[in-house]
Amino acid sequence: MKKFFIPLVVLAFLALSFTNKPKITVYLIGDSTLSIKAVNTYPETGWGMPFAWFFKSDVKVDDRAMNGRSTGSFLKENRWQPIVDSLKAGDYVLIQFGHNDEVPTKKTYTTPEQYVTNLTKYVKETREKGAMPVLITPVARRAFVDGKPTDTHKEYAQLVRDLAKKLDVPMIDLTAKSMALLAEMGEDKSALLYNHLKPGQNPNYPKGKEDNTHFNELGARKMAELVLQGIRELQLPLANYTVDHQ
């Protein structure tokens, strides 16, 4: 029987071709509630930071969210086009805006019509590259009335829900999920999720901090877990790449 010898260089090439398969990139676009934070703002944490650790090495989470951005300012500052240029089939774009779109006194304000137009652009251009858009309603602020959480994103969250239905886009209702978590924890204990600090407690905030919009490490992880829960509920293929998936 003849013996066939495969040159080492061929074996090396084959091994490299199997290990260097393209990674799935999950782009996160949005505002400060999911962005990567500077060291001097610790313990403020965006939910995109712990979210990146939920996946195996096949997946790269690229968090492009930025503090203070709306659907409009993200476009105007040319933060979207570089993502479009890099998108490939099989990638994902998770889209969560609203906090800065909905406030009329902010420079980043977008009307409801502009908000829908901008979200539609993100969805359309993602799909054109063969990637998967996922719309996410704005994560809840800690706002209670008579002991119950109130929805500060009511109009803009509903716009996301309506658009998702119209365009048949996967949607995670993070507004509803995060409000349910706040209700479960209650008005006092829910403060443990946000960037609340007493004077002198942290050198980054010598005068203390009471922020009911941005999260600390615990809050960011809890919100990231809700997003992951939504991905699983939607049965997106991305769910098969979590670290606990067999």
From TrEMBL:
It comes from the Bacteria. SUPFAM superfamilies: SGNH hydrolase. GO terms for molecular function: hydrolase activity, acting on ester bonds. Pfam families: Lipase_GDSL_2. Residues 29-221 form the SGNH hydrolase-type esterase domain. Belongs to the 'GDSL' lipolytic enzyme family. This is GntR family transcriptional regulator.
